[in-house]
Amino acid sequence: MNRALGEMRLEGVPLSPGVALGRGCFFQREVSSFGTTAAGDGVREAHRLNETLAWMIQRQEALARDAEARLGPREAEIFYTYQMILEDGTFQQGLFDAVERKGLTAAGAIERQLDLYKAQLQAADSEYLRQRVADIAEIQRGLLARLCREVPCLRCKDKGITCDIGQCLLGNDHVLVARELTASLPMEMDSHNVGFLVEKGGRNSHAAILARAMQVPAVSGIRNLSASVPFEARILIDGDTGEVFLNPSSQTLARYQSALDAGGPTLQILDPVPELRVMANIERAVDVQEALAVKAEGIGLYRTEVEALAEGRLLSETEQEARYSKVVGAMAGKGAVCIRLLDLGADKTAAWLGTLSEDGSMPECRGTRLLLARPELLRDQARALARAAIHRPIHVMYPMIVDVVQFRRVRALFDEAVAGLNPHMLLHGVLFEVPSACLQAPQILREADFGCIGTNDLIQCLFAADRTSEAEDFEDNPVLWRLIEDLCEAAREVGKPMSICGELAGNPNFTRRIMKAGIAAVSTSTTRIGEVRRSARHHLS
Ligand code: PEP
Ligand code: MG
Questions:
Q1: What backbone torsions phi and psi does residue 463 show, to the nearest 5 degrees?
Q2: Residue 356: CB partners within 8 Å, gap ≥ 6?
């Protein structure tokens, strides 16, 4: 924490990009009449449970319709999923059994049963299932709130005003301060709500997806928010970096002025520097325009699975070809385009992906391992890449490779898929993000055309660290840097290029160290390119 001229700076986790400035507005739940009853009146409790479930189901449907109209089917899906869980026969039976057989109150049953589901999900091997704990928690909170007649409201204590959700009486810009960003919050806010500052909530949560879809900046991961943020504070949040300024100074405001005026993420535009090639990480084909705007010297990572997840389905070969061609065409003459094969599985999964497997099971493996288990996923993408690379080269990146044997297998599968398409403009490279692959770097690099270090997963696998909340703690760990240096050495020995594309690449504090390790190209989000170049230039002068 850094205090200067009354300003207080906090560091959180960026959830949704953009910069927002407003007064603090505090989300609270007020209990108008406590609605639990003592156990014993089973019939009455079953009736209350029934009424609460029916209300909650209707509410999810209304939220889903609203989301569909305002945002689209993907966002509506979140609420339809809650509705489906609530309507599920086994789910309801568990609750009614707890009331009718075990003699619990309706609230007790909701608490006990849903805690049980949460514990089961928490213990699951799959990251995707563990992330669903938040869904059950949201349903539990909603049911209990209804049962206990809780009224969510907004307070700005300095003015002594309490408003209903979505009806700011002051009618001025505010940043909503809450313990947790729940999925319904972004849907219920009015246009005066310019940002979210919360204690809990991961980037992959549904709530964060909705905040991003609604282009409302959000930052999470600030502990003890109610104690840290004074009621009267003006709050500036930077959803790109996770920085939060309470009562921002005039210097801070000046620094963010253009971003606030533009209403979008800050884009610093600096000319390329000769010694370090700075490329862009993109998630969608349309992002290539932003990459061009910041003078990116290529696309160092195109996370193609994000478009499939956003669409809620796999894209056809033709659709994929169109997107890849668009990116390659736009970057012609600017630099290489590295398109990563679908890195699906684990937390990047969806029901539609599970339904594709013959036995109907959800995929538990991720990245290349999933592509090998489900070759149909690779086939269309490989063909689309080969077609898009008719006139210009494409660097194909293989995610989560574990060793040279696996790389050979997936390469063979790729070649089989593109047979007859004359894929001579394709280059094949490996993402080094699993320690076992790093240990075999010389062998792998002899067979690959290039390598790229994915520090996000590498840190997670190497240090058994939570990628969303703990990764930064390990960014300057000597073990990580030893590995990075060894990878660079291996690349030098076999004469293949090595770049770096994890979050670390966008941290200007590490630019110097990355260059010293012998890396000549990095790839990062478009909002970081300017800063990285500034740091590289500084290093050179
Ligand atoms: C990485 O793991 O560093 C990486 C770039 O891949 P992603 O963040 O998409 O997992
Ligand atoms: Mg990765």
A1: -110, 10
A2: 314, 374, 376, 377
Atom of ligand 1 nearest to the CA of 501: 5
Supply 293's token pair: 């705007």
433 CA: nearest ligand 1 atom: 2
**407-425 pLDDT, tens per residue?**
999 999 999 999 999 888 9
Q: If you search the block for the tokens 């993402």, which residue do you land on?
A: 431
| 358 C-alpha to ligand 2 centroid (Å) | 27
Give the single-character DSSP code of 174: E
Nearest CA to ligand 1 atom 6: 454
Which residue of 302, 303, 503, 523 sits with most ligand 1 atoms within 8 Å of its CB, as the best mutation to test the pocket?
303
Cα of 457 vs centre of ligand 2, distance in Å, is 5
Q: What is the mean pLDDT of residues 342-365?
A: 64
Alpha carbon of 261 to ligand 2 centroid (Å): 34
Buried b (16+ CB within 10 A) or exposed e, 92-125: bebbbebbeeeebbbbbbbbebbeebbeebeeee
> Any bridge partners for residue 145, and if so which?
none
- Ligand 1 center–CA 133 separation, angstroms: 23
What are the C-alpha distances in Å from 405 to residues 92, 373, 444, 490?
48, 15, 9, 18
**Ion ligand 2 nearby residues (CB, 5 A):** 433, 454, 457
With helix as H, strand as E and coil as C, how does 60-113 read?
HHHHHHHHHHHCCHHHHHHHHHHHHHHHCHHHHHHHHHHHHCCCCCHHHHHHHH
CA distances from 252 to 21, 235, 243, 246, 265 (A): 11, 11, 11, 11, 15
Residue range 482-534, pLDDT digits in tens: 999 999 999 999 999 999 998 899 889 999 999 999 999 999 988 789 989 99
Tokens of 268: 């610093």
19-31 and 174-180 as β-strands: parallel, antiparallel, unpaired? parallel
3-state DSSP call for residue 390?
coil
Contacts by residues 68-72 (CB-CB < 8 Å, ≥ 24 positions apart): 70/187, 71/210, 71/213, 71/214, 72/213
Cα–Cα dist 415/407, whole Å:
12
Q: From ligand 1's centre to the CA of 529, what distance in Å?
A: 17
Residues with CB under 6 A from ligand 1: 301, 303, 343, 433, 454-457, 501-502
Exposed/middle/buried for 390, CB within 10 Å: 0-12, 13-18, 19+? middle
Residue 357 has a pLDDT of 47
